[in-house]
Amino acid sequence: MLIREIRRPENERSPGIIEHEQDRSQRLADDWDAQICHPLMQGPLNMAQIVLISAVLLREHFPAIDLLAGRSRLAMWAERLMCHPSVNETMSGALAPNGSHEGALSAISARTTR
Length: 114
Description:
This protein has 7 helices and no strands. The chain is mainly alpha-helical. The radius of gyration is 15 Å and the shape is globular. The chain has one domain (2-112).
């Protein structure tokens, strides 16, 4: 819902829906930050990890959706997972001009240290 509202023309957006969905996404990110050390999220790449890293990386395309700010455990997990070859390969939109993911990693590091 949040992305749908953000993508609408500004005069068609619903501020109430945007606020509600942003609050909900922040609460979920807080829960994930608290639970990210669970073995399911630390083991071999699985669907739960893919879904979460996809949500976390939305901010590369939608800066208003920042699930890592102030969540150091979740940010460290995301940095580690971004180095996974299959995750790295799908980040083509977040790659630095030289084709590396260094820009994306440093951008995440910079944003999480605010």
